[in-house]
Specification:
Largest sheet: none
Number of domains: 1
Strand content: under 5%
CATH class: Mainly Alpha
Radius of gyration: 20 Å
CATH topology: MetI-like fold
Oligomer: single chain
Shape: globular
Distance between the termini: 46 Å
Structural class: mainly alpha
Number of helices: 10
CATH superfamily: MetI-like
Length: 232
Amino acid sequence: MDVIAEGFKAAIELLLKGDAQLYEIVGLSLAVSLCSVAVSTFIGVPLGALIGTHDFKFKNALLRIIYTLMSLPPVIAGLLVFLFIMRRGPLGSWELAYTPAAMVIAQVFLVTPIITGLTYNIVREKATKVKNIAITLGAGKLERLKLLLSELKIGILAAVITGMGRALSEVGAVMIVGGNIKGKTRVMTTYIAQLKSMGDYSTAIAVGIVLMVLAFLINSFLYNYQQRDERL
């Protein structure tokens, strides 16, 4: 209990004294997570909607792949991405290894299947009803898709929130492709892992508290938007 109490105390002290290293780590964590979720949403939402509204050959096989990727171990995702971006890999000339860009790519690899799969399930349940309404209104295929996404935006937002939670909590994949380099690729989760290995439990708890507060604030903002939209 003393260690936990010291952790809370250290968290307050780090925030109040404006610890430059902590704010740098928090800033990078936010930037990497927000960028990866934005890219994953751009890919996953339309893809999930298209799969949910169309029947095609090998659809079941594709869904099995997506569901498998939804539970893909982060270290496997990180390893696969690293094999492509390492110096001897197909994308080695791009010099992405151990950069924030590599961390974004790894998180996109993890978050996109989650948003795609959840969006598909949401669309599948209500697509027929919305499609019939759209046809009655004389909407074309593109208009139908827009109407569908508009009608299901609350559920889709929940999928995005889930993806954001995965991105913020990720450690294995970003550790492999980013390397936890101080001042360059160190984020809150990798910093916590390092502090734990060093036996600095108080600071690890402090950074963990900051991470939880940050996740709470982001999810609260999205939740409030969701509640406000439901009342309209």
